[in-house]
């Protein structure tokens, strides 16, 4: 899976979807950057030749349990922790509210985990507890959705924030035929990654090439399938001239596609955004969805485990320019503010959807 994905990305390097990492502070695999200190971190000395510790207790705290995207992400973490001969654990809330993760962080501190890997539902609500964890010498890695830089060691980002936002705007423009009304169906109002991508998308829409597009609404499905389904329905009822729903969340795009696929809007309203191939396959094949994008979520969880192990082993401190190896994914370099970027996402269409199974 990884090999075929990387080969496809290389073949598509000239396409508009392949996103340059130079536009963002984080660096991707095998890129280098100037050395410096990660945001909020005290000065420390890394030993890149230190041996990776075994038996590390690495706990994953996704945004919520029973979320298909989060399940794929953490499955990659579980694989990596086994490779590292550590102890894997996954805990979390059933809802993605701002404060729902705090009690789990406090419990993980009491259980004396070595590393906490968390996808923050809110960048600030988790910070007091995460800083308590760091004071207890627990290393904190954020992935998928960042917390404030002052309360984590490293952030594992899917792709550059600018690149994702630009890609969402580009796909919306393509699906709308260059003009008309579009709407966004996001996750929660406080979701760090969603808001960052949407901000970039808004900036893109101010450019001359997008002047005929009109963003009429940003709706929030709270990363809940039924809520997202209802919000998609509401958007189409409120805006009968709507051409495209852009959903930068896998729950939202699948729910919106499900609604449109069985409605009179099929073929009239396009759905695009970020989705899982396995969830979106039927909607691509029945013509509801022509194009969407994503990275391999399992690789995010996998990379986060190796970053946490490198921190706990003293190989890195989270400072810009430090390097570490992440198993099958190879070597990565830490960018500005302790950010590590997995790499560019891939665009899925009817031509390649059957080549991916996650």
Give a short synopsis of this structure.
The chain is α/β, with parallel strands linked by helices.
Describe this structure in words.
With 358 residues, the protein is of the alpha/beta class. The chain has two domains: 29-159 and 296-342, Rossmann fold (3-Layer(aba) Sandwich); 164-294, Response regulator (Rossmann fold, 3-Layer(aba) Sandwich). The chain is 35% helix and 17% strand. It is built from ten helices and 14 strands. It has helices at residues 2-11, 68-83, 102-110, 127-135, 161-176, 192-205, 225-238, 250-261, 277-285, 297-312, and strands spanning 57-61, 87-90, 115-118, 139-143, 154-157, 180-186, 213-220, 242-247, 270-273, 292-294, 323-325, 331-333, 339-341, 346-348. The protein has a six-stranded parallel sheet, with helices on both faces. The protein has a four-stranded parallel sheet with strand order 7-6-8-9, sandwiched between helices. A two-stranded antiparallel sheet has the order 10-14. A hairpin with a 5-residue loop joins strand 11 (323-325) and strand 12. It is elongated. Residues 1-42 have low confidence and may be disordered.
How many beta strands in the DSSP annotation? 14
Q: Tell me the number of structural domains.
A: 2
Structural class: alpha/beta
Q: End-to-end distance, in Å?
A: 9 Å
Order of helical and strand elements: HEHEHEHEEHEHEHEHEHEHEEEE
Please give the radius of gyration in angstroms: 20 Å
CATH-defined fold name of the largest domain:
Rossmann fold
């Amino acid at each position: 899976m990884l090999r075929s994905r990387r080969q496809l990305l290389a073949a598509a390097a000239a396409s508009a979807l392949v996103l340059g990492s130079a536009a963002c502070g984080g660096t991707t695999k095998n890129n280098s950057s100037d050395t410096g200190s990660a945001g909020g971190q005290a000065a420390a000395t890394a030993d890149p030749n230190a041996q990776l510790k075994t038996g590390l207790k690495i706990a994953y705290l996704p945004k919520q349990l029973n979320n298909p995207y989060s399940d794929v992400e953490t499955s990659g973490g579980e694989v990596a922790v086994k490779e590292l001969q550590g102890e894997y654990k996954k805990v979390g809330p059933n809802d993605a509210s701002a404060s729902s993760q705090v009690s789990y962080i406090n419990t993980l501190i009491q259980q004396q985990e070595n590393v906490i890997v968390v996808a923050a539902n809110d960048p600030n609500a988790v910070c007091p507890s995460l800083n308590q964890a760091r004071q207890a010498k627990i290393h904190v890695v954020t992935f998928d959705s960042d917390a404030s830089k002052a309360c984590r060691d490293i952030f594992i980002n899917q792709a550059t924030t600018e690149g994702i936002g630009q890609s969402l705007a580009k796909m919306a423009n393509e699906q709308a035929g260059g003009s008309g009304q579009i709407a966004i169906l996001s996750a929660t109002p406080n979701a760090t990654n969603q808001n960052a991508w949407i901000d970039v998308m808004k900036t893109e829409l101010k450019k001359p090439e997008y002047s005929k597009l009109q963003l009429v609404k940003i709706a929030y499905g709270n990363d809940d399938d039924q809520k997202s389904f209802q919000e998609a329905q509401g958007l189409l009822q409120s805006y009968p001239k709507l051409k495209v729903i852009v959903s930068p969340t896998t729950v939202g795009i699948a729910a919106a596609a499900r609604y449109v696929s069985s409605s009179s809007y099929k073929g009239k309203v396009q759905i695009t955004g970020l989705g899982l191939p396995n969830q979106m396959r039927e909607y691509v094949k029945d013509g509801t969805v022509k194009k969407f994008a994503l990275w391999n979520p399992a690789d995010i969880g996998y990379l986060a485990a190796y970053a946490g192990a490198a921190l706990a082993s003293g190989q890195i401190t989270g400072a810009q320019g430090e390097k570490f190896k992440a198993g099958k994914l190879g070597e990565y370099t830490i960018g500005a503010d302790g950010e590590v970027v997995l790499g560019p996402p891939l665009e899925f269409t009817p031509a390649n959807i059957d080549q991916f199974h996650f």
